[in-house]
Amino acid sequence: MQFSHELIMPNEDLPFKMFLFEGSSGNYFREKHWHRSIEIFAVFEGELTFFINEERHPLRSGEFILVNSNEIHSIQSPKPNQTVVLQIPLKTFEDYFTGEQYVRFTHDSNIQDETVMQIIGEMFAGYRGKQCGYEMKVKSQYFMLLYLLVTKYRELEVNEDMVKRNKKLSRLSSITTYIKEHYTEDLSLEVLSEIFGYAPAYLSRMFQKYAGINYKTYLQDVRMEYASKELMNTEHPISEIALNHGFPNSKAFSKVFRKKYGILPSEYRKEKNKIGREK
């Protein structure tokens, strides 16, 4: 199934989001993150790798993965791929919660996997085509997908630790949202703790215990994610990119970039320009 690289967003009448994965061109890595919505990544061409709570989940063409609400995950997409992403609001499943604001779906393969992939592919193609009545057809397919999720993929047995972890990550979500909106500023643990009314030591423990990462590393990862996108998509000077995204100077940015990608930003840009000239 061939898709273009345009971003596909639903109109206001659809109760979910559907779009082409932003790492479809390859050379993409998304750091650890989490969110309230349920996500489905369906790979139609190529491959990518998910890490969910440190567990590796490789995906090939014809496979998908369900990412639960407040489930910590990262994504590696070194090669081009065609992957459709669905984001489903958590409240969609409120009649099926197995804990307070909690529902969980399995990552294991299921006999219905092929059907799920077919439904998602038809939903995406129908939305792109926008022929008469497409909204009703896409909605009908969406509700069939929800039916399969709650009857074939939902886990009915959850323990108190799972629910507690979910609550803590929901609290952290408001903090990480603030970080992403202000990551270029001075955001020391002390500054953030004062804003949200936590003791610095307590906030530090929350990040380490429930997000599996210390605060300083998380902030650095956010800055690197945005800085890397600017490096890869513009010709702005590296020193300017570093300052734009909260790094004190280009040396600090280059050090972190090399540690993560195994190459200096300047070397990456040379390779990128070389490939561009060869095309």
Question: How large a portion of the residues is in β-strands, by DSSP E?
Answer: 15-25%
Sheet having the most strands: 4 strands, antiparallel
The figure for the number of domains is: 2
Uncertain regions: pLDDT < 50 for 5+ in a row?
1-10
Tell me the CATH topology of the largest domain. Answer: Jelly Rolls
Relevant CATH superfamily of the largest domain? Jelly Rolls
Total helix count?
9
Assembly type: single chain
Helix/strand/pairing class, anyone? alpha+beta
Could you estimate the helical fraction of the residues in percent?
A: 40-55%
**Given the C-alpha coordinates, what overall shape results?**
globular
Name of the CATH first level of the largest domain: Mainly Beta
Summarize the structure.
With 279 residues, the chain is an alpha+beta fold. It is built from nine helices and eight strands.
Give a verbal description of the structure.
- The protein has 279 residues and is an alpha+beta fold.
- The chain has 2 domains: 17-153, Jelly Rolls; 161-278, Orthogonal Bundle (Arc Repressor Mutant, subunit A).
- The chain has helices at residues 113-129, 134-153, 160-182, 189-196, 200-211, 215-233, 238-244, 250-261, 265-278, and strands spanning 17-20, 28-33, 38-45, 47-52, 55-60, 63-67, 73-77, 82-88.
- The longest helix is centred in the middle third of the chain and has 23 residues, at 160-182.
- The chain is globular, with a radius of gyration of 20 Å.
- The two termini are 25 Å apart.
- Residues 1-10 have low confidence and may be disordered.
